[in-house]
Every structure is written in C-alpha cells, then in structure tokens.
Amino acid sequence: MNRPAENIELTDLYLAGLAEQEHFIQGDEAAALGAIFAGCTFFGGYPITPASEIAEVMARELPNVGGYYVQFEDELASISAVIGAAWAGARAMTATSGPGFSLMQENIGYACMTETPCVIINVQRSGPSTGQATLPAQGDVMQARWGTHGDHEIIALAPSSAQEAFDLVIRCFNLAEEYRTPVILLMDGEIGHLRERVILPDPRTVEQTQRRKAREGEDVFGGAIVPPMTEFGDGGFVHVTGSTHKEDGLRDVQTQSVHDRLVRRLVAKIEQAREEIALVDVDSEEGAEVGVLAYGATARPAKGAVLRARSEGRSVSFCRPVTIWPFPISRIQEASRGLRQLLVPEMNLGQLAREVERFVDCEVVPLSKIGGVVHSSQEIHAAIVEATDSC
Amino acid sequence: MIYIDEEFCKGCRICSEFCPTGVLGVSTTLNSKGYYPPVVEQAYECHGCRLCELLCPEFAIFIVNEWLDEQAG
Amino acid sequence: MLKGLIDPEFFEAFTSGEADESQHLPVYGTRDPLLGLCPSEVEEESGPAHHRLLRYLRKEVLPTTFCVGCGGGTVLNTFAHAIDEMHIDPREIVCVTGIGCSSWIPSPYFLCDTLHTTHGRAIAFACGVKVMRPDMKVIIIAGDGDLAGIGGNHLIHAARRNLDLSVFLVNNFIYGMTGGQVSPTTPFGTRTTTTPYLNLEHPFKIADVVAAAGGSYVARWTTYHVFQLMESMQNAINKKGFSFVEIISQCPVSYGKMTGTSDPVTLLKQLRDASIHVDDTDGMSEEDLEGKFVVGKLVERQRAEFGDGLRQLISERRESISAELDRGLRQDTSALETGR
Is the ipTM of this complex over 0.90? Predict the structure, then answer.
C-alpha cells in the first residue's frame, strides 16, 4: 500500500526545494501550498471561481508528495469524500466558493457531528446565488457560523494576505486535528486572486499536529471533551454516524440525555478553547476614541486608512480578528476598551459588525460595501475623519 | 440439524412457505414478542439445502449438517 | 429458546428404515456450532447459543428493527454468508451507507468499520475511504431512493470513474422509512402515498443505467434468489473496479400496503415469478419483458481501475522527483510553478 507518509525524506527534500525558490503567487496558490506543507494527503474538489486555482495547485503538487487529488462530480461529493478520507487516515481538504459552500453545508454538519478533522477553504465571492461570480465579497461570515442546521460550533480563520493564506491553512489543519472538527479558511476572492510575495518555510520546521488515536477500549465519541480517534482498518469496528450516538458511536436517537450530552460536548470543546484559538492582530493607540475593526481583504485598506489618519495626528486604534469563529470575545473587548466608536468595514451588510456589537461597550458603526469592489482606503479614511471629528 | 431461534423470529412465514420439501410448519404458540415461529414438522424430509437459513431476514433459523458432513468427510 | 431438531441417530435410523416416524420429536441440540458446547453448557456460560453468523453482527443491536418479512434482513443474511464463505476478515471491510431502511442493513448490524453517511452521499464518502485505503474492501449497501434518487449523480460518476467499490443497491421501489412515497424505481402506474392516484413517471432500470455508465461488474437478483445473490455479491467484491448488484427486494409494509398485499410470502413469490434470467431473454422484445425482472449478470468488463491509476501517477512523479534531486537539476524549478 502506498501511504503518503512513506518516504517523508523525499517529500521534505522536494518541499525544501520549493521553499528555496522565489514565489510571487496568488492567495489561492499560497493556500494550496500551505496545505501541501501541512501534510495534506487528500484533496477532493470541484472547480469554482474564484477558488479553482487551489484545486489546480493541489492537482499539480499532491502527486509529488504522495497525496491524492480527486476531482468530483460536485461539491457534495467533494466534502463527502474528504470526510471519508479523513476516517481512512488522511489529512484531507476541499476548497470552494459561496455556491459550493452552500452545497457542502449538510456534510459540514456531518463532520461536526462525527468529529471529523478536515479543512474547507471558502474563497468568498459576491452572492446570494450566482451573484457576481468573479468578484470578491465577505458575505459568508454568518454562513460559516450557522450554515449547517442544528446547534454546533465551528472554527473559521480569515487571512489578509497571500502569506497569511499559506500560514493559516497550516494552522487550520492543526486545529482540525487538535479539536477533531472541521475548520474553515474563510478567504475572500480578493485575497484568493491577490498576487504577492510568499516565503515558504523549511518543511521540517512546519508544525504538524498528529491525530490522537484511541487505545483499545477507549471511547471514540465521548469520554474526553475531545475524544481520540479510531481510523478505518485499525480493527476497532468503529461506527460513524451523523445520527445522535452514544460514546461508543452506536445510535441512540430517542434518549434526550444522550443528545444533550453529545451536542453540549461538541459545542463546549470549541467554546472552552476560544482563547487558545483566538488570533487577533491588535494595534491600539493610547487614548484613542475611534477604532477600526476589519478582517480579510478589507483589513488592508482599513490599516492604510488608520495609518494615514495617525499621520495626520488623529488617534485611532486598529484591530484585525484573524480568528472569526469562535468569535474572539475577550480580545476584541480588550482592543475596544475606551473607544467611543468602532468602525467595522466589511464587504457585506454588517454580518460581523452585528457580532461585534454584542460584545463591545462602544458604538459599532458598520461600513458596509457590496457589489464586488473592495473598500478604498479613502472611503475608510473619510469615515475615520468623520468619527474622530464628532467624538 | 435445524436450529430455530424463536426469540429472533418475527413470524413472516418465508421459511416455511419456501421450504422445497415442506419440512417446516408454523407453531401454534406465540414467542415472547407475539409472533408464531416456525416448527419442524417433517424433519426427515430436510435435505439441508439451507434455503430457509439464507431467506430468513432475522437469523432465526439455520442448519448444521453434522451428519452429512460426517458422511462426506 | 434454541432447539436442535434432527437427531443424527434418528436420521440414521430413519434412512435405514428402522425408525418409528412418530418418534421424531424435537431433540435438543447436541452442540452449539459456534462454541462447540452443548446448549445446556452454553446457556450456563454465555447465554443461549445462536446462529453461527452472529459473530459478524453487532449483537447488542439485535434483533433487527426491520419490519416483518423485510427483504433487508435477507440481504444482511446473504451478505454475512457471502463474507463468511469468502473468509474475509471483517476488520478489512468498511461498509458505507446512506439514509433509509436499506442503509440500516450494514449499519449498525454488520460488525465492521461502518460509515453511516448523509442521504445519498454513501458512494462519495466511500470514494474518499477507498482512495486512502485500497487494501480494504469498501462496500456500499443502500436503497433505491438513496443511491438512485438523491445520490444518482454519485452513482453514475463512480461507475464512470471505476474506483474499486462494491455497491449493493437494495431496490424495494419505495421510500420505506418515510412511509411509502414514490421513488425513482417505482413502476409506472403504481399507487404510493405521494402518487395516491397513480405514478405518472417512468422508473429507472437502475442496473442498466450503471451498466451504461461504465460499471465493471453489474448484476441484478432478487431477495428470492439468495444463492445466486450470494455468489453475485462475492463476484462483485472480488471484481477489481466498480461493481454493482441491484437487489430487488420486498417491502411488505410501505410498498405492499399500497399495492395490494402486505404478505411477505406473496410479495416474494411475485418477485420469483416475475424474474427471468438474462440468458433466457434472447429474442424477447421490450414489450415481452414489461413487468419482468431480468436477473443475472448483465455486464462484466475490464477497465483500468482509478485507484491503481492514482498510485501509478504518484509513483511516477516521485521517481521523477527523486531522479531530478539525484541529478541536482533543481536550480530552475520555476517550470513547476508555472507549469499549468
């Protein structure tokens, strides 16, 4: 059997060769290379703008490192195969955009319920429906959180540069293994197609969280808040089901306490790790009364506007949540302390602004922009000027 | 040897109806779940073909053909 | 409750004509076939003795939840016999199922690694499993609504792709678990709960669809043809490539109640009587075959298997990278970057 783990030396040499080169690549390509460096061994995908480049790079690079690329008949099959592959031992990933992400929702719920580690990249485009297929948006923030039915918690990270796309995919794989859960890289079309210099690390320095395997007699679906896994072929006769199940994996869809215990644990395992998962880039200014909170592509013009305002002598704080879900509550509260107004530019009609509003004491002002055009630095700067003048 | 696990039986009568040699009949007493399991009525007619064993949806009837195995073996 | 009913001594006496036929009363079994103990001893040690194939089942969930006379139980039984005869270690099997009565055949009953997936997606999940674990037997058992309806696209594409999967589609012509709604295989003109007057749609002959889509082994049998079905399952499991067995099955409760009889025996007799072996259909027109089930092996062909292709590709790429590294010709690898 040709397991991709074989001959790691050759893989390392090959990746070291890649790392030595100069890379001026798109965010999509960087994310795909991130997956290769993270030890991804299975990619199931379906072409969709603006995420197709991820599939193309995976198809090109996975065979070089002993991994499997399969293009499926649709996104339903892609996410399904990714989950199947994960239970068969793979570090598995798929990539898509809004319409495909909508199709995947049922099985993202299945991955939550069955505690399957896997990574889903959503390169957001303008919706709803086919919308502006080639143009960027950030309209899937709430779909990432609540897209699948039923109570659940999800992890989603949003990169603001091609380099960060590379770095965060690696983190996504590690979080998926650590918490046995699907993890979403919530990229946007702007970052996906943004071409930048990306520096690849020495492959031997890339941290790869290993899957914790169950010992004989250990429960695979309970017992610990994040239970260990038994893969197919381990001889554990594991029973994986999206139905409500007991600690041993067998269905019990009638007992209230069984469902309660299961779903509360699935939520709690992410909830209790909120601080550990939280990545927030904070650039506060002492005494500032106005702040800007932005993520993904929007964070770039937002940061530019903040720096310009500061150069004009205005005191402005800046905060960029990299972890979108679970929402980094305490870090955002800390970053917004003392502010009177927090501006939240995003490429949707205020999806994350609403979440921010729940947790901060100051006034939250959404700066919404839709239609496939990223905020200009001038627009955000004008809003900062208006806010600082009125404060 | 025909074994009948009465408690697994749901009384569908497939075994008794499809037995090619009419070995099986239906019991007149209920099992604990309220079904009428099969009974062996003409044991000596059994050829050990195992059709009942394979048709049974409930793993409730099976054949152990010791005697024929011995003859064969 | 276990009774062993033919005493070998009596049998011998009977065949030699010395027995008193009125004396063939039940004789309690001499030994349990699984444990090699007398039932009395067995009951003391581990409860009553059971069917020898129970070792392939998750005993804690027995007896099954199937309705009286459900063909699903027969498929499970036949499947267990097939695996037993093939001497396959159940630790080398992954059963993948979807949603519906037929998906319950292996999950939870069959004791192996089991992936009980969302509705219609069993084959797609199985693709991921099989690509990663080519050494394991990946077997999909699900119903007509699951595999031919909501998952129909995965079915034809998996047949086209020719990954080494074995699919057993249990076709009972109805959505049974939800109470008897029309399915993609319900015959034209049939009454169901959602076609209360009649079904105006034409059904799939799903095995023919898979054969046309490129399946490497395609057969059709009914739950009456248990021995042929068992052999067909074994052939499907052994066949390298996408193999498919359509198992026409009776649903006494959800299908039977709308179509005249809930009696499993009558339904099974109908399946038997409507079946015609594919070898006997020479010269028969489509009209002659109306309402008949053409059983037997429909297709067997050799095509390159997808998983083998993937592994071949990987080993070629790895060899070429290894050779390149050896030659130290890696200075200019920008071709890799822009090779698209």
Answer: yes
